[in-house]
Every structure is written in structure tokens, then in C-alpha cells.
Design goal:
By secondary structure, the protein is α/β, with parallel strands linked by helices. Helices cover about 25% and strands about 20% of the residues. It folds into two domains: about 5-55 and about 85-230, no CATH class; about 260-380, Rossmann fold (3-Layer(aba) Sandwich). Strand 17, helix 9 and strand 18 (about 350-355) form a beta-alpha-beta unit. The longest helix has 12 residues, at about 5-15.
Length: about 375
Amino acid sequence: MNLKDLRRPFLRWAMGWPGDSTLAGPPRLAPAKMLHVVEESKKEIAELIPVHPPRKIFRKKEAIPLCCPSHSAFDIPVSHQTPTFLASVPRGRILGPTVAVLTQKDRMLSDVSLDWGHPGLDHFAYRRFILPRCRDFDGSALVLACTGADTYFHWFTDALPRLEIAFRAMGTNWKPDWWVVNTLDRPFIRESLTHLGIPLNRVISLKIQPHIRFSNLWIPSLPCESSSGDTPDWVVEYLKSSFKVCINSGPETALPKRIWIDRSSINSRRLELSKRDKTILRGYGISIVCLEDLPLLKQINIFHGAELVTGPHGAGFSNIVFSSKPKILEFFFPQHVNACYYSLSQHVGADYSYHIPTSSHHKTFQSIRDPLRIYLESVNS
């Protein structure tokens, strides 16, 4: 028996302690979905406003495997999207960095509190005896923070669209006293909030304040159920509309039309191109772009005019929401295949292809040149 097995029964026993988890963990009530709680307790959830009805998400264009067998992740033509809503939680709390939303009765709302791979009572909030000190704030707050939203993809597809849910429910002129995010350390988070007119001095970072409580907490549901990566069409429409004014109307000859998304400076799923690889790319008119070095507005403008986007799987592909009918070739490491950008590509009319090698080193693909050559020759023909 390991330490984790020994700790779990003690944590379950601690749920029966007097008081609540503002002083010592874990939360005293078992987690439950918000729609279940609202039926039982108006004290925990004072109001729930429905916004989007349930819908189906269709992948209309087939994903084309290139020089590799097809993968089952791309063979899901239809997925189901749960309805969205905005809930009001009096005296609600938020715990980070793995986000947990707690009611005043000390119940975690499980559908807006994800700990990937650790559902229910295995959530981060239920695995700790000692929680950070809870700080109280007067006024109302809107929760944008969710697990993973300190990264580019989840910020744009999970966190920011929660603004749209809130404004559809409350009206575009409505404003809370505070906004809650995972962190303000990322430039793209600060830039997008500033662009949307949210004052940064009213934004609270869970990285700095990991345990906070408000007079009233407004909690939008997650746009994608369980951060599934099956992004609904309304999210893409919201992002395009919200950042439309950032797109330069005049000709931008300096911006490349064909791009390779460089990940050589990233630790995870890193792919280093050889000199020969770079020569092949440039020979086909493809510019190598390191998106981490670019401000958000320039990334948006590059993708708005992009005709071809290729590179290893990574968050930079999130920018295809700002494009129109590009051609996409995504490279995967065989240990990590995720169809989230294929799903995203369907909403912008993209032609999507992918390559998964039979084996790969952690820094490079042995077989990158042949798929590139075959694909680029077909595009040019």
C-alpha cells in the first residue's frame, strides 16, 4: 500500500470535521454538478440563467491522413455539446491553481471544477488537508479561471468565451466588480483582456490569490463540456467578432501567407528542424514563425491572411479561428494525438491533413521530409 492509499481514508474522515475548508481541507460536502445543486439549494445557487441550448457539433470535412494510417481520434463525425448557463453563487469561493469552485456550504461544483484525470473526490481540492488562507473580497466576481486556462488554447476556447455566456445572460453593459483568471503572467491574457475593455486592476489572479471568496460569484459554465476540445461554433464566432477590429484592412505584404509554427523553443512536444528541413520549407515559400515571440494582434493578423499552416501539434494552431479556409497539415508525436485543432478547423472551412510517424524522437521526426514534400507538391499542383 502506498502513501496515496493511506491518505485517502484520512481525507474522507476529515470531510466530517466541524467548520469548513476556509480553515482546513478538504471541502466538507461531496462534489456535485451545478444543475443538480440548483434543484436542491437556493442558498448555494441563488439563480441559474440558461444561455445556449444543447446542440450537436459536426465535423463536416474529413481529416486526411498523410503517409500514415488513419487514427481513431479523427473518426468522430458528431459530438454532443451540453447547454450553457450562468449561475449566481452567494459567498462563493475559488481555489487554485487547479481550479475548484466551492459554495458557501462547502460543496465543490464539479462541472466547473476540473482536475484532469482526477474526477470527483480525487480532485485536487479533496487531496489536501491544508489549504491556502482564504481572502474575502466585497462585491461580485465573474469566474473566467478554469483548469488549463493559463495556456493559449484553453484561454481562448474555455476561458474567454465565458464572457460571451455572461453577457448573453446579463446584457452587454453588465459588469461585475471583479474578474478572476488563472494568471496575469501570460502576455496574451493581458493583451486580450485589455482589448476587451477589462481593467487589469480589477482582475484577480489565482496564482497570486489562490483561495478567494466574494459576496457573490457569477459562474458561467464551460463552453466545451469537460474542456473536451470539441469547440462549439458560437465560440469561434465570438472570437472572430471580438477581435475583428484588430485585423488590419490594408495590404500587409510583410506577413507570410504560408507558415510553419516553430516549437523548437518549447519543452513539450518539441520539434527541431534540421537545416535541410528549413531549406525544404523555404523552397515552398513557407515562413518559419515562432508565435511565442509575437504580440497577440500580430498573431491574429498573420492567421487572418494565412493560406497554409503547418507544424507540430501545439497551441499555436488555436489561431486558426481567425483564419478563413486555410490548408492545414498538423504533425503529431505518436504518444500524443489530439484532434482538438481538427475540430476547430471545421468552423473555418479548412482542409485538414495530419501525419503521425510510426516512431519519433522527443525532439524531431525521422520522417518529416517525405510527408512535407508530398503534401506541398499536392498543394502546389
